Amino acid sequence: MTFFNDLWVVFTRAMRLSLRQPLWVAIGLLQPILYLTLFGPILEQVAQTPGFPPGDSWQIFVPGLLVQLGIFGGLFVGFGIIAEWRTGVIDRMLVTPASRTALIAGRVLRDVIVLVVQAMILVGAAWFLGLRVSIWALLAGLVMVALLGAAFAFISYAAGLAIKSEDGFAPVVNFFALPVLLLSGILLPMTLAPRWLQIVSDFNPFKHIVEALRAIFRGDFGSPEVLLGSVLAVLLIIIGAWVGNRVFAAQTK
Amino acid sequence: MTTGNGAPIIVAKGLKRTYKSRGKPVEAVRGIDLTVREGEIVGFLGPNGAGKTTTLKMLCTLLEPTGGDAEVVGCDLRADPVGVRRRIGYVSQAGSTASNALAGEEIVSHARLYGIGKAEAERRGRALLDALDLADVWDRKCGSLSGGQRRRLDIVMGLIHEPRLVFLDEPSTGLDPQSRANLWDHIRGLRDRMGTTIFLTTHYMDEADALSDRILVIDHGAIVAEGTPAALKAGVSGDTITLSFADHETAERAADIAGSLDGADTPEVEDAVLRFRVPNGGTALPQVFSALGQAGLTPIGVEVKRPTLDDVFLTMTGRSLRD
Ligand SMILES: Nc1ncnc2c1ncn2[C@@H]1O[C@H](COP(=O)(O)OP(=O)(O)OP(=O)(O)O)[C@@H](O)[C@H]1O
Ligand SMILES: [Mg+2]
């Protein structure tokens, strides 16, 4: 099928270009490790405070880091597509008979694989520091990173191509990123927050995704939190893929 | 030279594109009709902002027309864009390669989007690079190539699937004279050997002149002239004679004499230089000299210039292409 040929060609090209930028890959790997080593120890102390949810501090902390990795790893890829557009690469590909979906999905696939590798290193380091969960919980964590990463990469590519300027794209990303980070309990559980903040955060889908992953890490696979978080994550990837495809196809409008 | 004998390969009717820029409409292309025949080299000549790139992008399915229709290599632009894409090559004005990709990788991955196998892509890629004097760039990063080398690499990419129709948007921008001449040879060779139809934009008059079987002149989104380079130039009235004198007064006196000659238009004097046009410079010059001699005036320099495409443009639009 030509779709899979196109997908593979776009993916391998993107992957080769990523691997040729070892510094970027290294920084991407370093970030979660820094969080683990420089922020993790503080959290171990905070875990003693009343209001901290059940489970040990690593089971609380690592799901948050994984969700953060997925969201932010995906969110910034739009900068790359703006640069590609400027060099004429996007138009050069659009003028071929290649599937439009493959042109964006091949790039997203590259991002997902980079993110999953980063997540595996993160989890490995966390294990070394004291994380103990089942293999299924770890797998669920990686799947969640992949889903979130893909959804945000699609959306980020769409936004980057729609805006076509780094100066316009950066504020959009920041405007979006900060509330998501603060209202999702990624770093500190929202159970520590005052009542009104908890209510506000209930409207943030990413909080529910974090909570779902925390439940999974506790071994609570059957809890309603897990169902809600999974449904939200699947919805997100559907919306992301749809928006991404729409914007890519609209490039020739 | 094969001109106008083949079947039509591009037929555009009323093609139009209006951009929206900050809420205000910009009429980039105002309903143009054009026909290009198989095997032709057509030059699309016009100043910056005339609408050349916009027209090309519409014909390449990169931009939806806001009005009109076109058939490109037998496929309708709106109904079968994928069919068009399969049959055409396009070299954009903006480039086509990533700086940190290797030239060979870009060529092969581009070819594979047309369904060409890896080995075949590499074979064709190396042959094309060779033909455009780029034999040793296969393993070089695109960003490390000089501007002109990178431009030629863009052209290699656009030709890799051996399309029947190629659109080249200012192919020779940034090339030195030797590379330009080589590119022209290659473009002519493509047509002569493989019968490829070539539609190229340029604002170099010498390029349009040297390369095209037929020229379309575009200005402000509309085609203002069309024809072979020779026919276009023949339409401009006459040759320009430029005479230099020792001083301004002599030039002024010579202008009065030149103005009274048969067929000459109003002479212009600039410092000590006199310029006027006559239907035929070769036959007018002896008369000019004898008339000047009788009045005791001797020019210190003389030049006769045949009309150029710039004069064509000037006559059509009242502006020079060079501005
Ligand atoms: N995306 C766009 N949005 C708004 N206006 C545009 C856009 N692209 C082009 N234009 C305008 O349309 C007109 C035609 O542009 P076009 O790029 O087709 O010109 P061109 O003949 O290729 O010029 P050049 O020789 O500089 O390449 C110009 O006035 C340009 O400013
Ligand atoms: Mg242009």
From TrEMBL, chain A:
Principal location listed in the UniProt entry: membrane
Topology versus the membrane: Multi-pass membrane protein
Single GO term (MF): ABC-type transporter activity
Residue ranges of every copy of the ABC transmembrane type-2 domain listed in the record: 23-247
Keywords: Cell membrane, Membrane, Transmembrane, Transmembrane helix, Transport
Residues annotated as transmembrane: 23-40, 60-83, 108-129, 135-160, 172-192, 226-244
Subcellular location: Cell inner membrane; Membrane
Protein name: Transport permease protein
Organism for this UniProt entry: Arsenicitalea aurantiaca
